[in-house]
Design brief:
Layout (H helix, E strand, L loop, with lengths): L10 E2 L17 E2 L2 E2 L13 H14 L3 E8 L2 E9 L15 E2 L4 H14 L9 H4 L16 H6 L10 H5 L4 H4 L25 H10 L3 H13 L5 E2 L1 H5 L8 E4 L2 E4 L10 H4 L1 E3 L1 H11 L9 H7 L4 E2 L12 E6 L4 E5 L2 E10 L2 E8 L4 E7 L9 H9 L2
Antiparallel strand pairs: 1-5, 2-3, 4-5, 4-16, 6-10, 7-10, 8-9, 11-12, 12-13, 13-14, 14-15, 15-16
Helix pairs in contact: 2-7, 2-12
């Protein structure tokens, strides 16, 4: 029915983010991979042409339906490119405003939300979660009573990793899974070991409701999306299904790519996987996390999130990157030493989508890439980018 290869549709766009008075107009545009640098930019402009050529080849060879990527400095757009179509059934082109599910990159927003609550003195990193949310019983051991907001955001709750993610995969919503919190096996005291979570991580939404008397979705919209000028971004299923310029999920079936239905259950864990955004929105988010908009994300908020909390064990795809020296999790972000350079990263995957976001603060540069197909290419785009950036 559908061919696995087609010529990539390429669009190159100049982006003018306009979030707030903190912003400055971006000063560069890429044309055929050649970076133009403003005279006021003190840093030499990297040549991303070989990286873009590699991406072009890989995307076309694999026939990935649609891709959008961008490279930014804190106040400058370096690259913005799109490939392919929103859906193989309709073949409308992906553009800079096309909405994607960003999956677990949503955790970077949750980390910011938690850090803002602490910054605003609405919560403390070290207050036990069960004193904030006494309606819950969590875990099989009494030690979980000491689980804090810091533990939730750093995946150091001491609970069995990926607790009840299988229920999300089966379409069971967060509200129903909450009833089984007391049955999650406790594998170590809080703070002692790393165990990645989706369901338990989403306790952040409950903390927001108690602290601010509004929903997590409302808080993110009012405190992040709106002031940053992320015009198409949203949290939740309605923001995705209600959009016109939206990308469809795809999976590889045999020799062809096929559109697949949305799993709504992951939208019920908004902090873990519920954000929808375009590449243009995510470029603004990358700039915000490079420090471009301190009125929205103060430097102390960023510093808290980007400080290592727990070393992460080997076993994930990023542990196989050849120049990776060490890996940690912070508060909503992964943190790496890559070829001796500190790197901030998160990736995401949910049925039919992959996403990757990487920051290199010391070089004031970041890259985001969004796929509307489940592809192993997503495992390679960050190390290839870093290798192009770091000699």
């Amino acid at each position: 029915m559908l061919s696995i290869r087609f010529p990539a549709l390429l669009a190159t766009v100049l982006l003018f983010p306009g979030p707030s008075a903190d912003a400055q107009a971006p000063a560069a545009v890429v044309a055929s991979g050649q970076i133009q640098r403003a005279a006021s930019d003190p840093l030499p402009a990297p040549d991303f042409s070989p990286y873009l050529d590699w991406l072009d080849t890989e995307i076309n060879t694999l026939g990935i339906p649609g891709v959008a990527m961008g490279v930014v400095r804190s106040h400058q757009t370096l690259v913005l490119k799109t490939w392919g179509v929103r859906s193989l059934e309709a073949e409308a082109p992906v553009d800079s405003h096309t909405l994607f599910r960003i999956a677990s990159v949503s955790k970077t927003f949750a980390g910011a939300v938690a850090a803002m609550l602490v910054h605003d003195q609405k919560q403390s990193w070290d207050t036990p979660i069960l004193s904030i949310l006494p309606q819950y019983a969590i875990g099989t051991e009494s030690s979980t009573r000491q689980m804090t907001l810091r533990h939730v955001l750093s995946h150091t709750t001491g609970l069995m990793p990926h607790a009840y993610s299988n229920m999300l995969d089966s379409g069971v919503a967060y509200e129903k899974i909450q009833e089984k919190f007391r049955e999650i096996p406790t594998v170590c005291p809080p703070g002692r070991c790393y165990g990645y979570q989706n369901v338990v991580f989403s306790l952040v939404s409950d903390v927001v409701e108690v602290s601010e008397h509004e929903s997590y979705e409302q808080y993110v919209q009012q405190r992040l999306f709106t002031p940053l000028g992320m015009k198409t971004a949203s949290v939740g299923l309605e923001g995705y299904t209600g959009a016109d310029n939206v990308s469809t999920a795809h999976q590889r079936r045999g020799e062809s790519w096929r559109p697949v239905p949305t799993n709504p259950a992951y939208y019920s864990v908004g902090p873990a996987a519920g954000v929808n955004a375009s590449v243009e929105d995510m470029m603004i988010w990358a700039q915000a996390n490079l420090g471009a908009f301190p009125r929205v994300l103060p430097q102390e908020v960023l510093a808290q999130q980007q400080t290592p909390v727990v070393e992460t064990p080997r076993g994930s795809y990023f542990n196989r990157w050849p120049r990776l020296d060490k890996a940690w999790y912070g508060l909503g972000w992964r943190i790496f030493d890559y070829a001796g350079v500190r790197v901030i990263h998160h990736g995401g995957g949910v049925r039919g989508f992959r996403s990757e976001l990487v920051l290199v603060p010391s070089l004031d540069i970041a890259m985001v890439i969004l796929f509307n197909g489940e592809t192993p290419l997503a495992n390679d785009v960050v190390p290839q980018f870093l290798d192009a950036l770091i000699p």
